[in-house]
Automatic annotation (TrEMBL):
The organism of origin for this protein: Halomicrobium zhouii
Family per similarity comment: Belongs to the Nre family.
Name of the protein: DNA repair protein
Pfam families in the record: Nre_C (PF04895), Nre_N (PF04894)
GO biological process: DNA repair
Length: 428
């Protein structure tokens, strides 16, 4: 598809979008939270909780290396626990912000203080938590609760939201968990470094969601170094490790032949992905709208960026944090499938439709699925199964810039890749 035809399909009726946003921002979640509070009170009235728990845990980072660690269990007795675990399937099912918050706030986080050094701990609360994490399906557990509880909902930009917290004094398995043979292998090898175990599981079909849960439970790495890893850290660690592995396999590959522009939008986030011939290079630029979740009071867009060259990065990304590693992974997976390398610029516009944080998973899936659009509606460029093509990287950036909420000059000041283009008087 020609780039001018592709971009022409993105003309927006801003007034109509505002009306739609007003309708969607009904904040039905506030009504749902009233139900959560009632469920919470009923759940913690007794001294135990018995039920099926999602194969997912939560490990906090406050107070490290003495942290809070928890088992996540649906409070509704008839809930399908597997439906509460963070997954790329949420994108395929078209879940919105309300849907995600309802699922996650419906999980009781039964917590216990623990030291991060776990070595071979497989008994007590931490042992049960680790068994839940390595299982490939929900496990029945019985959790003993005390009177200490907190209805606060945990939200941040990396982790998926967590529900109310209750202090646990015990946790026991009510059944034997089913552990995949590949996971058993990583546990049995005491000399296997965590990075190798991560890529081993990824190559055997485990998605990063499953891998970061196992890592978070301290079930990877050399035995004497196995530790509980805060959930926020484990998500980024897995995205980064798998991304480096994929990048390493592409550095001697041929480059793509033409400049391509891909697009996707999800949960009020718009993603433009520009691939152009050349050795591997990557940059993420984020544009956060006023009144969006991470720029709530400003009157103008807030821009952040991070980048890497052919050899990768040597330090952690600060400005864009986990979004950088999640978006980079989506691009690298696409290039691996094509067995090609390329230079890549990802432009993420966070609109005011993104009114509550649901975690960095939506960035990962937003970029992953920019390359996996439905070919069933060729009249809609947003659903094209092929990208728009441009003559040059400059042409692609100039065309995409017309659809962005900031000027090309503003973008140039923040983006290393765009700054590398020679300025023209018409850019100002």
């Amino acid at each position: 598809m020609r780039l001018d035809e592709f971009v022409a399909g993105f003309e927006r009726d801003e007034a109509a979008e505002r009306r739609r946003l007003a309708e969607e921002k009904s904040y039905e979640i506030t009504n749902y939270l009233d139900d959560v509070e009632q469920q919470f009170k009923e759940t913690v009235q007794g001294d135990s909780l018995f039920g099926s728990t999602a194969p997912e845990i939560f490990v906090g980072r406050s107070g490290y290396p003495n942290i809070s660690t928890g088992v996540l269990s649906p409070m509704a007795p008839d809930a399908d626990a597997a439906d509460f675990a963070t997954s790329g399937e949420w994108y395929q099912r078209g879940l919105g912000i309300d849907d995600v918050l309802q699922r996650r706030t419906g999980l009781l986080n039964s917590t216990r203080s623990a030291k991060v050094n776990v070595d071979d701990v497989w008994d007590g609360f931490v042992g049960t938590q680790r068994e839940v994490a390595i299982a490939d399906r929900p496990v029945d557990v019985e959790v003993g609760l005390d009177d200490a509880s907190n209805l606060d909902i945990g939200l941040d930009d990396i982790s998926t939201p967590t529900g109310p917290r209750a202090r646990a004094n015990s946790a026991e398995l009510a059944e034997n968990p089913h552990v995949p043979r590949s996971v058993e292998k990583t546990l049995e090898d005491d000399d296997w470094r965590a990075e190798g175990a991560m890529t081993y599981l990824y190559n055997r079909g485990f998605d990063v969601y499953e891998v970061n849960t196992i890592l978070s439970a301290g079930a990877m790495g050399q035995n004497h170094e196995r530790k509980l890893v805060p959930t926020r850290w484990s998500i980024t660690a897995v995205d980064d490790t798998v991304g480096k592995y994929l990048r390493g396999g592409l550095l001697n590959r041929d480059t793509i032949d033409t400049t391509e522009v891909w697009y996707n939008e999800y949960m009020g986030n718009r993603y433009w992905v520009v691939l152009t011939p050349g050795r591997w290079e990557f940059e993420l630029v984020e544009m956060k709208a006023p009144e969006s979740v991470w720029n709530p009071v400003a009157e103008s867009y807030y821009l952040s960026s991070a980048s890497e060259g052919y050899e990768g990065r040597t330090g952690y990304v600060e400005e864009t944090a986990g979004a950088y590693y999640a978006s980079r992974l989506g691009v690298l997976e696409h290039l691996q499938e094509r067995d090609r390398q390329a230079k890549c610029l990802v432009l993420r516009e966070v609109t005011d439709e993104y009114w509550a944080p649901v975690g960095v998973w939506q960035v990962r899936e937003g970029v992953r699925n920019a390359f996996e659009q439905d070919a069933g509606d060729a009249s809609n460029p947003r659903l094209a199964d092929q990208p728009a093509e441009a003559e040059t990287f400059r042409d692609a950036v100039n065309a995409v810039a017309q659809q962005l909420p900031v000027s090309l000059n503003t973008l140039r000041r923040k983006s290393d890749m765009v700054a590398g283009l020679q300025s023209q008087i018409t850019d100002f």
